[in-house]
């Protein structure tokens, strides 16, 4: 008589043990560890390995649930790397999980390898705005400038070129340093011609300013200090007030006075319109200078509030000077036109006016 067969059971006969050895056919003689019910899968001695993403990440999250947030994020990142490694044939995930533990004291105490990063960057390989001066040395650029061309202008102003030109060179060096590292004072294209384009144009009418007899001067929109600073270095005037409304340029002027130790120069960080009713500025100056700021008419209208009767105004203007004089003739109420003087090698002219 045949015995009934249950689903999932082998036919009556010899069975295979868990370890592959022949087992007795009688159930009563089977080992205790080999007893199983019908339908059970065969047990193995090896522990279950996490072979998919969900099981592996779930186990890691449970293991780091009581750790700080930074370690949890690191564990998630490591789990993703381990899953990729297991798919690509790398070492088993369990071996990598063991590496996530605390490092040994010898490894933690070993000096770390220095990271190569650019100046001012947060991570290696990602450049950011440099915090150090990476521009070429401005002194080499200034060595190629025609400094000898300034001697005739300095001599006509009644100053000593051997004392004035080194000071002008130091001034030009500070202008270029600030222009390259902080904010724009002059055009980048004018750096290679700062002597012929800026210093020479500022100093060429210096003898006219000296012959006017003015001692107290106000400069509109000084910017980099042109033309007031070169004129003051050449000995023009006793007191200068440099009015600049833009904060970076006003900071440069104040820094310039401290670094060079220039005396008799005051920096005024304000707009000209706000100073027209200030008692300390109204009719308090003998002369006014302005280089490439406002149009001619508005400039002379504002200057009439600051310059006393009989004072002078010197305006550095370009090719549009004649057009500006004709378009707005309101300035004739307070000023008389005294003539012009060419400055520099371009089309820059210096127009002179006398306060009525």
UniProtKB/TrEMBL annotation:
Entry EC no(s): 2.1.1.-
PANTHER family: S-ADENOSYL-L-METHIONINE-DEPENDENT METHYLTRANSFERASES SUPERFAMILY PROTEIN
Organism this protein belongs to: Eiseniibacteriota bacterium
Keywords: Cytoplasm, Methyltransferase, rRNA processing, S-adenosyl-L-methionine, Transferase
HAMAP family: 16SrRNA_methyltr_G
Class of this enzyme: transferase
Name used for this protein in its record: Ribosomal RNA small subunit methyltransferase G
Chain residue ranges for the region called Disordered: 1-130
Binding-site residues, S-adenosyl-L-methionine: 221, 226, 272-273, 291
Task of the protein: Specifically methylates the N7 position of a guanine in 16S rRNA.
Bias-annotated ranges (Basic residues): 1-19, 29-46
Family per record: Belongs to the methyltransferase superfamily. RNA methyltransferase RsmG family.
Compartments where located: Cytoplasm
MF term (GO), any: rRNA (guanine-N7-)-methyltransferase activity
Compositional bias of kind Low complexity: 103-121
GO cellular component labels: cytosol
């Amino acid at each position: 008589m045949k015995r009934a067969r249950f689903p999932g059971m082998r036919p009556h006969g010899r069975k295979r043990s868990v370890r592959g050895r022949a087992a007795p056919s009688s159930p009563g003689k089977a080992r205790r560890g080999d007893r199983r019910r019908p339908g059970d899968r065969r047990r193995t001695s090896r522990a279950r390995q996490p072979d998919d993403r969900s099981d592996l990440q779930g186990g890691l999250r449970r293991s780091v649930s009581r750790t700080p947030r930074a370690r949890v994020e690191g564990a998630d990142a490591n789990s993703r790397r381990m899953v990729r490694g297991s798919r690509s044939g790398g070492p088993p995930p369990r071996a990598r999980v063991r590496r996530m533990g605390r490092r040994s004291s010898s490894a933690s105490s070993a000096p770390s390898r220095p990271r190569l990063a650019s100046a001012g960057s947060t991570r290696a390989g990602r450049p950011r705005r440099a915090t150090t001066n990476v521009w070429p040395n401005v002194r080499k650029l200034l060595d190629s400038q025609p400094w000898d061309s300034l001697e005739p202008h300095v001599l006509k102003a009644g100053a000593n070129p051997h004392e004035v030109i080194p000071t002008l060179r130091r001034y030009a060096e500070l202008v270029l340093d600030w222009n390259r590292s902080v904010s724009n004072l002059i055009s980048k294209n004018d750096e290679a011609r700062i002597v012929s384009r800026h210093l020479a144009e500022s100093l060429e009418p210096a003898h006219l300013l000296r012959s006017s007899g003015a001692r107290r001067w106000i400069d509109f929109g000084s910017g980099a200090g042109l033309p007031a600073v070169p004129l003051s270095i050449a000995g023009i005037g006793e007191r200068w007030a440099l009015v600049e409304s833009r904060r970076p340029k006003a900071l440069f002027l104040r820094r310039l006075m401290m670094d060079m130790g220039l005396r008799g120069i005051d920096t005024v960080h304000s707009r000209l319109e706000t100073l027209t009713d200030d008692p300390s500025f109204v009719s308090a100056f003998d002369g006014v200078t302005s280089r490439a700021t406002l149009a001619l008419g508005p400039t002379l209208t504002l200057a009439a509030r600051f310059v006393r009767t009989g004072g002078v105004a010197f305006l550095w203007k370009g090719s549009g000077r004649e057009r500006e004089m004709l378009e707005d003739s309101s300035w004739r109420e307070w000023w008389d036109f005294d003539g012009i003087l060419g400055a520099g090698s371009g089309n820059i002219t210096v127009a002179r006016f006398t306060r009525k």
